[in-house]
Amino acid sequence: MSNPKRLWLPNSLLQIAVQTLLRRPWQSVLILLGVALGVAVMVSIDLANASASRAFELSTEVITGKATHQIIPSGIGIRDDVYAQLRRSGTLNLAAPIVSTYVSIPTIKGQAFQLLGIDPFVDRLFRDYWMPDSFSGQAFFELLTRPGTVMVSTTLAERSGLKVGDELVIEAAGRQQSVRIAGVLQPSDRLAARSLEGVLIADIATAQEISGKVGYLDRIDLILPSQNLAVIEKIQSRLPPDLRLETVQARQGSVRQMTEAFQLNLSALSLLALVVGLFLIYNTMTFSVVQRRDLFGAMRCLGVTRRELFFLVSGEAFIIGLIGSGLGILLGVLLGRNTVGMVSQTINDLYFTTTVQTVGIPVESLIKGGIVGVLATLGAAIPPALEAASIEPRLALSRSGLERKAESVIWLLAAGGLLLSITGYLVFQVPGNHLVFGFGGTLLVVVGLAMFSPLLMKLLLTVLRPALEKTFGFLGNMAPGNLLNSISRTAVAVSALMVAVAVTIGVSLMIDSFRFTVTQWLEQTLQSDIYISVPGFNANSSFLPIDPLVVEQLKMRDDIERLDTLRATRAISQVGEINLSATFNPQIGAERIFKEAVGSADQITLAMQEGKVIISEPLANRARLKVGDRIEFQTPKGSRPFQIAGIYYDYASSEGSVLMWQDVYRQYWEDDAITAIGLRLKYGINPDEAAAQIRAGLQTNQNLLVRANATLREDVMEVFDRTFAITSALRILATLVAVIGILSTLSLLQIEKQRETGILKALGVTGKELWRLVMLETGLMGLIAGLLAAPTGFVLAIILIEVINLRSFGWTILLSINPMAFFLAIFIALGAALTAGILPAIKMNRLSAAEAIRYE
Asked: Which has the closest alpha carbon to 747: 22, 26, 23, 173?
């Protein structure tokens, strides 16, 4: 019967594990750094995603309060008289009308504030900021009786030095207005303070005047018994056709879904650095086992069991994982300061605006990073641990045993890699747009291609060896020979660098292709010379109406050949609330690139004038719609189906949008407002000069964005570059981890070859020749990694474009191959490897022949 004390690890073996790590400090530091960087990248991205999600939750919790349901409009809003009629009829009992808009404060740059218009008499039943200690009775009275008054958060008051009675200048719907501070909200705790920091409270009438929504509400909040379906169905049945009752959870969930794909993509990419770090862990632990084969053999002769040797190596890995993960968490928090801002900015640019600026550090992200780091380290150490446990005492002194074993499994690895790659391809064929299958298939393909590295490395070195010998003499023969003799370790380092560089190529090709596609799309879509709109806070907030007098003034100018108008809003359809735009552009059929359509450009325009619509590709993919299908909208005149005449490529929103003719829109929604204007200038007129003249000449109190075509394109591409800035940072960090892997491998190889180095020095090999030898070895590793990364990166780019992006955002991206991406990647791999070889070369050069020969 086995001794229960030996099921884990005796103290003596535990001491050996600790002493091994301390005896090789340089090796331990490198592997700790590899683990720490991998964990740090993952933690920083998780912090960014969690912080963005928490900011959204805090921003919405204070707005929704205790509401369980909301009545939302299909179009511009809920008319005041409709709300009053619903109240008089007894349809709505516990109901709070809401006007909501985003405003900016000119003295505070870079932050959006939400102006919330409420009915103070009923709103206190919905939201906690109406607690007795939150503000004075005088503030409540002034908010009700004095127009143009607002209440602000304590955070804003302290930040701007505001007190009750002060005037505050805000900008809403393009107009600067002055409001009076009626009171300062006193939150009950720190969490409430964070939720309220970007909120201004006003009376309904004041909010309507400030936002330009006089006569309209944005929504009606309700508190309903969730189990009483009869009450819910009764309210829905009494609502006008353009209003819909939704649960708060469903409405917030639809907003969250917009960012899920973006955040999941970042999380998957952040794991790359950890995956590359796993190669480093595996490689270092394998070296550790190889270096101690004689020790392990002796221990086996003395009665140490296979189980104890397995736990010895696993224990070393556990210690490394624990310390490395701890360092990674600290580094991840530091990195998170930048990634949180980058992710939040992208979400604000593309999806929705949050008013909460600080959310603290989510502890869950730190715990998750630590657990994943330790488990990943242990997982990567299992093969070396099994190798240590399998050592036979009689083979302990044979260091070539592992290499012979590696030689025998190279072809098996390649066969396994082929099988994994084919499995990954089959996973892509699973029906549906499940991103988990997309990322799972991608991982299988990348790992499968990495498993080809040992075989391809052996073949390349064998082919290059004669040419290198002719060029560099005996050193040219030794360098590839050394790599081949240590292929069980060198191949892993090359694989790690290859994966990192392949991702660099793949992501670069994807971004370049996306940029090329967006550029082509802009050239086709932006045909006007000048564009006019109201400043918004993100790509999906361009629903603010332009002063109607602006259109009349523009029609009087003699330098304008054509004026096109656009109305953008949100409407309720059978696929949910979506973006709806209405245009008067007679060339709309020619100014869109169609994936599928009923006919020519003129036929598309004619179809729209007859009442049909065109939809964007992301919406068609998400809702599984095609040309000839119908999309049904809730309008003030009832439910109305519109036949789809075309599906056009669009990269403005991954949510998707519908475009219809403006007369048709006005017929059903009775809304004459416009949100954007496109101007075609007469021949020979400079757009920049004309834009400046229009900007200066417009007689309106509304601040408008008047941009020439080229300026608008630059603004769009600036947002594009900002979106992919974090992706570039992740690529750099993954490559850095791979460089550490190369450095670790070379350092360990030099330790193993100390006796050989001493003999070479004793035979007259100079320091310069040793330098050349190390640089040849590192250069070959980098070159091979770069050459193998080129096809792998190309395959990865195809997957990112055809699978991941299409499933994530519904976009078709045109593949654009820039040869420089491949040359740059090979240069990075070669440069990284050569840089990593400098330190081992210095150490070898400083070692005397006598010291080196005495090593064994």
From this structure: 26
